[in-house]
Amino acid sequence: MRPTESKDLRLHFGRTIAGDANPPIALTPPPCSREDTRVADTIHCDTHGETNQAFVCTHLAGETSGLGFNRNDPDAENPTPDAWCDNCEIIRTVHGGWTDEAQKLSKIVLLCAGCYERARIRNTRPSVTLDDLAGLRWKCGSCDEWHTGPALDFGYSAPYYWGKDEEKASRWTNLIPRAIKKPSKTFLDLDYCAINDESFFVRGLIHLPIIGAAETFRWGVWGSLSRKNFETLLASDGDSERVDQPPMFSWLSTQIPEYPDSLNLRMYAHIQEPGSRPHFRLEPSEHPLAQEYHHGISPERITEIMFRRLP
Fold it and tell me: Would you list the domain boundaries of the chain?
């Protein structure tokens, strides 16, 4: 259901407009910011940094999903037009627009542009939903058991650059008695990899938001790190304060066949608490993987990946 009202929702909700005699409704504090750091039309978000302001009905904030996402068409001047859920669209339609009576029944909140886009992905109603995949059966390659429902995790045990020569060098090192063993220049474990003491990698997750759902589809991949960042991570592997590390620049080091060449996509590793792998944030680009990271992956696409990979 698409709005037909040409006026922007904010003209009626909570924004002072020249010539508007109606007092603005008080805004709920922005859920994506710990403090009000708005300057002009920007806002600081703990997750997305400094971005443009955006306004949505209160139902679209938080982790809601599948509620519908109604708005006027975005354009260069206003890429994040005010948005509201399907229930608020019923209110708007019944009252013939955002009248005084309609706005008494609805309330908007302030979001950053990044949280706005995440709300759009979660609440857009796709023709095929994640729930429609509940009847799919598939066999797991790790546990060799059959499961029901969508498969949302696929991963790689080594970076693309780890080959037979590196495997041989690593096995030879493992045969040396620990008492006389020097720090290995080439090794691979469940979370870290080094090759010839020159290339360094960490294992992490790329979370793709699923259109119409609060869940994510996850690629378990490897990303490169500088020597300094790699050594910092190794030294703080069990330290609870490692989450305070700033994002670490990384090149995607996994070739995912469901996409065009995915090697060397620019991204950042966001370090998590001990026991959890980093989350990789892809920089915006035209690459299909980056597009799905920033704009969502459809349940149909997930089904396509499952059929390609699973028996």
Answer: 9-123, 130-309
